[in-house]
Amino acid sequence: MKIKLMIALITSGCLLAGCGAAGPGANGTPTFPARDSSWMKEGAFVNVANLRQIGPGMSKDQIYALIGPPHFDEGVFFVRTWNYVFDFRIGHDNEVATCQYQIRFDDHSRVAATYWKEPDCALRANPPEVRPMPQDAAARHGDAVTLSSDGLFRFDGADEADMLPAGREQIVQVAGAIKRDFPGYREIVVTGYTDRLGTDAYNAALSLARARTVRALLIRQDLDGSKIRTAGEGAARPVVTCDRVEPHDVLEKCLQPNRRVEIEIL
Asked: CDD domains from the xrefs (predicted)?
């Protein structure tokens, strides 16, 4: 009887105070428990709408009601961190991304901060908002090709020397398609865009320089330079907004669709 009672007390102590729970590191950065130490052998498919409601100041009871108990043997009551393992469906063929999520509580057991172990997972839980193109803009556009600046140029690059090999190949393919499918084109407009990070002046100059580099490569592919004009719009007409995305590296990745070069055939 005493042995059984002792085992019960030890188990209860783990539930209340936590057993080997991972928490903040020495510099305050989050540390995550090993994935295979979770009692969840597979990640849980969380209700994303519930997950998005979690924010600072919420109680443990509110968290429990939204996404359930933590997925590691770290306790529930007298602990500062709850850790979870979530699965998200991505792409096709039932492909799944597994993500570790951590909630940090303050001295009053209220949510102080939340963290994702994998930066990409923050975007799976809060996908960027896609803004449809205004109807007046769509009406004046002909056929258009949108190329990611991240796939065309090295970081912060705009000159031809900064172009990636895959970026050059994209331009060659676009030029070939224009000559094949639009032999009677009236005009080609190459417009560069950036994300909202950086100053307006810097973004305007960077976007225009990239557009001019793309124009030069199109001309090299035997397209008529007199019919190709360029523009640099900086952070105008964003495709995504990413209003509440942090930290910086996650925000930078979220804003990637805005860093682009559009080639319009009129």
From this structure: OmpA_C-like
